Every structure is written in C-alpha cells, then in structure tokens.
Amino acid sequence: QGTTYTVIYDNIHQQDYTTEIDSVLHTFDLSLSTYVPSSIISRVNANDTLVELDDFFLAFFAKSKEVNEKTEGAFDITLAPIVNAWGFGFTDKQKVDSILIDSLLQYIGMDKVRLENKQVVKKFPQVMLDGNAIAQGYSVDVIAAFLDKKGIANYLVEIGGEIRAKGMNAKGELWRIGVDKPIESSDASDRELQAIVQINNRSLATSGNYRKFFKENGQKYSHTINPKTGFPAQSKLLSATVIAKDCMSADAYATACMVMGVENSIAFINEMPGLQAFFIFTDSEGNYKTYASKDIESFITEIE
What we know:
- It is a single chain.
- This protein is globular.
- The strands form four sheets. A seven-stranded antiparallel sheet has the order 1-4-5-8-11-12-13. A three-stranded antiparallel sheet has the order 6-7-14, with no helix packed on it.
- It is of the alpha+beta class.
- It is about 30% helix and about 25% strand.
C-alpha cells in the first residue's frame, strides 16, 4: 500500500503475530492494491476476463456502492482514469485540461460497472477502479478481525493513519488518537496536533488536502477529486476526521466529506446514524475553525 503500519496489542497469550499479520496484509494487497500488477483489482482494470473475485473484493465493491449511493456520488471508485490523469493514481500524470476531463467523465460513475455472478461487468472497457480511498481503511478492519479471532481484547491497529482501537491501552485508559493540524506539506518531523480523540471499539479515518497536492502555474491542485466535475474539490474544508464502527466506512465517508465541503458535510453527518466527525476548515478570513458532531464532543480535547 506504499505506507507504514503499527499494530499494538495486549499480548496475553505471549504470542508474536507479526508474521501472520504480514501474511494477511500481503493477501489483502493481492486483492485490492493497484500497485500490484497481478492483484485482482489491477486485473479487473486491465479487463482480464479470467480474473476471479475474492471475498475482499466483493466486500470492497459492496461498501463502495453503498457509500456512493448515500453520498449521492461524492464517493466514487470509478474515478481511476481521472485520478490517474491528475497524477494521483497508479500511472504518470497527463497534461490536464477541460477537453481531457470531459473525455474521461463518460467513464466515471458506479452506473458504469456492476457485479454479475462474481464477475465485474463494465459498460465501457475504459472504466477502471481506484480503491485507495477505502481499501486502506478496509485493511485496518481485516487486521482487527484477525486480532479479534485471536481473542485479543485490547489493541490498536493503524495503517497509513487510518485506525481502529478496542479496549484500553497499557495505562488502562481509552486509546487517544491525535488529529493533525492541517499544515501544508508537514511530515512526521514537524506535525502539530489540532485535537486528541478518545475512542473505544470504534474506527477513525482522516482525509485532508494539505499533504497530497501539486502546484502548477501558481495553482494548487488537491488529490481529492470531485467525481461530478473531474477537477480537484474546491472547499474550505481542510481536514475531515470520521468515526464509525468499521474503518472501511470511516475512510470512505472522510473522503466524501472532502468532496462535499463544510456545510454539506455537517448536514450529512448529522443525518447519518453511526457516524461522528471532527472537521477543520477555514472561515472567510482564512482563520482555522473546527466542528465536532454532537456525539463525540465529550471525547475530543482541542489543543490551543
């Protein structure tokens, strides 16, 4: 997946599960990593008619379709051709203009792809899938399920910043998760925290436009693409942290919020049972502002 991961667990059985966890992640990547040419999703994108879908792919597709419908298209895994064109996918960046985007938009939309007898059926062969906005969260769920099966009551799974936590940490306290302040181009050495969130038996994912972007002719282009326009989403929302029961949902909805923007995301989260959110955005004068949905206000500590 091109990222790091951390798994912390209460080792009551005195077992080291490192090798098994690596094996599970390897199997997962063979299904849903677009960076593995022989993976199932890569073969689907290459129109390999002999590819057999596994349970990982089926669950990924079902959840993607569900989130797409609930967000009225703000989340869409068929964005791959346009994500690739902008240089945020698994091919080289192209020279992007409105003519190119218009030519690619005809291949975008969950109505262009369906499952039939455990096979992917495309309306056009040019349709391709990009699972990067949901698969990483799903991989967190997969490792958490592995630990659950081993009888581990207290753990934290973090893959590329997407997290699931259960039980207590080593101090006997709820797991505390830091939410980064959206500082442009910051990395692990100079990050600052905006808030700390406590979670138990929940998952958390954050999407933002302040790290993955490029600048061209003085214009900043975010990696979050609006499926309806084909262009990077323009919004005052800088960071969307979503908490859900499963990390696959949290990951997908965090991405959708970045597309929908501040006001629409607040309204959406408040109408969705089982979802909570913490948003960081800018006001009309460029000042940082935050919003915490009602159910998690008491679990958030903001840092001045």
